[in-house]
């Protein structure tokens, strides 16, 4: 089974995000970049599937040169090939444009399956997965927590959480699956994996290599414009409920929930 | 971004700018160790350290090890990290691929292990001791011993230990009484009791291979009659499958100050007359063999202490940047002046800079020793090999004795920066201090290191090793002397080196004179001043590179880092070396009071 994983490089979730002077972007100087945690689930699921059915796992990323490091990590985990779409003209593209570039890179390839995270933990938009499926004209299964293939590897049955229930969906292949937390526990790159990663192919492509028009990309082509970034309001101090006895405290809590928070 | 274990910028600086580890890849042995691969190793090691080992640090401390019915249960929180660490191939990064290692340079192993130790030094005792036992098997094992044990030990599938200490044989290992009697089949029956055996019994691995020091019947007394044996906890059949349990029984574990997650076991061997081992190496040559591993183990202890120190420094630094307390001393009587972050207070800065210079100086020294070992391995020139071996021999007591002393001081400052919060268990500072404390004791106390340094290492080849080292330091001084702006600092280090040379000469003579006891009373202070001078050398060497980068090609992001390097050596030369110089005066005075005072005059009765 040939599997593609689309991955994004995002700031480490522990990084302290500072808004830049233009109020539309963040300060990136001090940031440690990591693989989008939802994409890690995708890499892991792809590797597990390959272990079962054979085939090849290709990871694709878009972004500046530093994204190579994230692709190398996926190669060290066990993926076979990497592709980086790296073009200054793509800087500042919105999700639709990113999806267009990824789809263009995938189009000529033979694949049965595409995994990608249900969203990036940086912008939290969740648009790329669905858009790539749309551009490729294949079905999309989103927010998937469990993936099970038919014995012959021709179709897939997945589970998706819906309002406290679980929806089971079947699909033929090829299909794009966006991965949700709980799907698996991503492996760490092993040392032998790290040594092998060095020898694995990692191609770099520009937009024109993919037959794309640079004017459809970048800041100027954004359909979605960022007006302003704001920090969340500082959390106000908590309130400790005073009282002589647990009963008294409980009564006071009920009163506050009713009168101040208006929750009851 | 905030870092909690090791400063990645500094680790990369030492590896690639100061030591140029990636240059080793031009040798066939290390051809896979290019810069990209080395960086990926450090990155992925950090991931494992931060996500898996670090969370188990506090948990392992609180859980501790349990001793039930002769079995030791390791902390539950260590199970998953051990599995991941073992499966990831991290136990033997620098060993032969044929035997389950990864064939990487020792220097990169030290860098990776620094981070693992910073995350959880107690956890690291399991794989590190295992690796040490593997080294013994690799070096002294017969083909059969190797094929039975080595791969499983180097990969961490099985654990490994060292059984030296007995009730009456601690620092004086020659006093051991565990005995070995040769059987008809060539094996030996071992009988005796060992104590303080780290990882001596636990359930993280299905088997444990003990390297045991014992006396063969009729062997000469003292250190010349000690042999080394391999004693598996569970016997291994010729086809590699596990057989009957060997007669090795854990009779208890110690309740310690720190490193709670690793059991310090009392082991009874051959209580039922059925403990069988095989000879490793030659009869009566066990101690020499053990010391080959012991030297490596001492460097490992240095890495462990560095791990505690760097973690303590970064925790303290992060805290000092956030914690607001008190107004600036410069705000005078202004009642409305805002509280400032405590990093703004001069006394806190003094402590942080003290922590920084030791952590960074020690990091450089440790990686430097790793590079010496690697260069020894790849060199085809006998003189060069001897030079690197000499540097490692000479500097091992420094990397153990001095490094652990200073790492503990760093952890102590780490608590102080946190103030009252440093003393409570909600913050990591106190555990790092407790865990670090053992490093001053095991694998030869720091007193023993000092005696080894003065009594053996200093005089080796008529002092050639020591003078070679001073020669290496001089090279850096010369370079620094030629860099505009660093001349004064170079002169400061040179002055200290000259005085150290004089002090060493006088002390060496005294050590073989009737005043030998007086000289050895100052062995530890002498190790300390030597270590100080080596720190100033390492910091000066960093500054030479930083100065060059600042004058030529430092990126905007890197400027504070490089400027920090120059400030570090400035602080060391201006504020610490004068104290070192005073300590050398005190050594040179060689006060007889320590030796002359009557035992009864110590009082107390």
Task: Describe what you observe in this structure.
With 264 residues, chain A is of the alpha/beta class. Chain A has two domains: 220 residues, 3-Layer(aba) Sandwich (Rossmann fold), CATH 3.40.50.620; 30 residues, no CATH class. Chain A contains six helices and twelve strands. A seven-stranded parallel β-sheet of chain A has the order 7-11-6-1-4-5-12, sandwiched between helices. The longest helix of chain A is centred in the N-terminal third of the chain and has 17 residues. Chain A is globular, with a radius of gyration of 22 Å. The mean pLDDT of chain A is 93. Among the domains of chain B are: 130 residues, Acyl-CoA dehydrogenase/oxidase, N-terminal domain (Butyryl-Coa Dehydrogenase, subunit A, domain 1, Orthogonal Bundle); 126 residues, Butyryl-CoA Dehydrogenase, subunit A, domain 2; 150 residues. Chain B is globular. In chain B, 51% of the residues are buried. The chains are: A alpha/beta (264), B alpha+beta (605). At the A-B interface, helix 2 and helix 5 of A face helix 2 of B.
Q: Could you give the count of β-strands of chain A?
A: 12
- Largest interface, with Cβ-Cβ < 8 Å? A-B, 21 and 22 residues
How are the strands of the largest sheet of chain A arranged? 7-11-6-1-4-5-12
Instruction: Tell me the helix content of chain A.
Output: 25-40%
Identify the quaternary structure here: heterodimer
Parts with pLDDT < 50 across at least 5 consecutive residues of chain A:
none
Which class do the helix and strand fractions of chain B yield?
A: alpha+beta
Total number of domains of chain A: 2
Largest sheet of chain A: 7 strands, parallel
Which structural class should the secondary elements of chain A be placed in? alpha/beta
The span between the termini of chain A is 54 Å
Tertiary shape of chain A: globular
H/E element order of chain A: EEEHEHEHEHEEEEEHEH
Could you tell me the CATH topology label of the largest domain in chain A.
Rossmann fold
Radius of gyration of chain B: 25 Å
Instruction: Please tally the helical runs of chain A, counting DSSP H or I stretches of 4 or more residues.
Output: 6
């Amino acid at each position: 089974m040939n599997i593609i994983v689309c991955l994004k490089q995002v700031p480490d979730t522990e990084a302290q995000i500072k808004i830049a002077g233009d109020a539309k972007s963040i300060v990136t100087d001090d940031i440690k970049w990591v693989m989008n945690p939802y994409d890690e689930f995708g890499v892991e699921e792809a590797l597990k599937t390959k272990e079962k059915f054979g085939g090849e796992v290709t990871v694709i990323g878009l972004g500046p040169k530093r994204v190579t490091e994230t692709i190398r990590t996926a190669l060290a985990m066990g993926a076979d090939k990497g592709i980086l779409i790296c073009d200054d003209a793509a800087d500042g593209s919105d999700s639709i444009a990113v999806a267009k570039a990824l789809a263009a890179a995938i189009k000529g390839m033979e694949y049965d399956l595409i995994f990608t995270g249900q969203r990036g933990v940086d912008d939290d938009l969740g648009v790329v997965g669905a858009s790539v499926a749309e551009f490729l004209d294949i079905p999309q299964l989103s927010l998937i927590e469990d993936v099970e293939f038919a014995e012959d590897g021709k179709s897939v049955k997945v589970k998706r959480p819906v309002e406290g229930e679980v929806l089971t969906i079947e699909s033929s292949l090829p299909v794009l699956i966006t991965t949700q937390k709980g799907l698996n526990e991503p492996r760490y790159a092993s040392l032998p994996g790290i040594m092998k990663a060095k020898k694995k192919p990692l191609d770099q492509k520009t937009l024109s290599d993919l037959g794309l028009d640079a004017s459809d990309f970048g800041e100027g082509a954004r359909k979605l414009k960022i007006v302003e970034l704001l920090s969340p309001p500082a959390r106000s101090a908590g309130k400790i409920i005073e009282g002589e006895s647990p009963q008294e405290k409980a009564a006071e809590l009920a009163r506050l929930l009713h009168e101040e928070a208006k929750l009851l | 971004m905030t870092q909690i274990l090791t400063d990645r910028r500094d680790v990369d600086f030492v590896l690639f700018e100061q030591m140029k580890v990636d240059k080793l890849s031009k040798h066939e042995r290390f051809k896979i160790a290019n810069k990209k691969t080395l960086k990926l190793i450090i990155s992925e090691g950090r991931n494992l350290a931060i996500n898996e080992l670090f969370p188990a640090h506090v948990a392992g401390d609180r859980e501790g090890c349990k001793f039930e019915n002769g079995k030791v249960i390791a902390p539950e929180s260590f199970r998953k990290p051990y599995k991941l660490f073992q499966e990831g191939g991290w136990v033997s990064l620098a060993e032969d691929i044929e035997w389950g290692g990864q064939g990487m340079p020792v220097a990169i192993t030290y860098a990776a292990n620094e981070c693992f130790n910073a995350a959880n030094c107690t956890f690291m005792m399991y794989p590190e001791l295992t690796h040490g036992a593997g080294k013994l098997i690799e070096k002294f094992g017969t083909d059969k011993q190797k094929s039975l044990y080595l791969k499983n030990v180097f990969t961490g599938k099985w654990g490994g230990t060292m059984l030296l200490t007995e009730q009456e044989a601690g620092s004086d290992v020659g006093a051991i009484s565990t005995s070995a009697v040769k059987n008809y089949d060539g094996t030996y029956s071992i009988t005796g009791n060992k104590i303080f055996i780290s990882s001596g019994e636990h359930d993280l691995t299905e088997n444990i291979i003990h390297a045991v020091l014992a006396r063969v019947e009729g062997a000469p007394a003292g250190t010349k009659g000690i042999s080394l044996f391999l004693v598996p906890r569970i016997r291994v059949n010729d086809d590699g499958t596990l057989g009957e349990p060997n007669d090795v029984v854990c009779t208890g574990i110690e309740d310690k100050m720190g490193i709670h997650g690793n059991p310090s076991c009392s082991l009874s061997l051959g209580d039922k007359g059925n403990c069988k081992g095989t000879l490793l190496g030659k009869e009566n040559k066990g101690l020499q063999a053990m010391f080959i591993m012991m030297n490596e183990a001492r460097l490992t202890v240095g890495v462990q202490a560095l791990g505690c120190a760097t973690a303590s420094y970064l925790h303290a630094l992060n805290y000092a940047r956030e914690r607001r307390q008190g107004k600036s001393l410069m705000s005078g009587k202004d009642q409305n002046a805002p509280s400032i972050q405590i990093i703004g207070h001069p006394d806190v800065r003094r402590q942080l800079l003290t922590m920084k210079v030791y952590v960074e100086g020690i990091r450089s020294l440790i990686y430097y020793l790793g590079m010496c070992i690697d260069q020894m391995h790849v060199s085809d020139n006998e003189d060069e090999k001897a030079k690197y071996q000499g540097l490692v021999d000479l500097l091992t007591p420094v990397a153990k004795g001095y490094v652990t002393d200073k790492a503990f001081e760093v952890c102590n400052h780490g608590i102080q920066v946190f103030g009252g919060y440093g003393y409570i268990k909600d913050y990591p500072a106190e555990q790092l201090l407790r865990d670090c404390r053992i490093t001053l004791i095991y694998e030869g106390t720091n007193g023993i290191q000092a005696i080894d340094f003065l009594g053996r290492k200093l005089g080796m080849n008529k002092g050639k090793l020591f003078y070679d080292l001073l020669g290496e330091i001089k090279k850096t001084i010369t370079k620094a002397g030629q860099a505009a702006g660093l001349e004064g600092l170079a002169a400061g280090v040179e002055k200290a080196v000259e005085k150290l040379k004089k002090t060493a000469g006088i002390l060496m003579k005294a050590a073989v004179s009737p005043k030998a006891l007086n000289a050895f009373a100052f062995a530890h202070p002498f190790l300390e001043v030597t270590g100080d001078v080596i720190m100033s050398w390492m910091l000066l060497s960093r500054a030479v590179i930083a100065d060059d980068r600042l004058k030529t090609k430092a990126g905007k992001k890197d400027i504070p880092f490089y400027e920090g390097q120059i400030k570090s050596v400035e602080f060391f030369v201006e504020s610490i070396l004068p104290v070192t110089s005073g300590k050398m005066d005190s050594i040179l005075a060689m006060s007889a009071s320590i030796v002359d005072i009557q035992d009864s005059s110590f009082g107390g009765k």
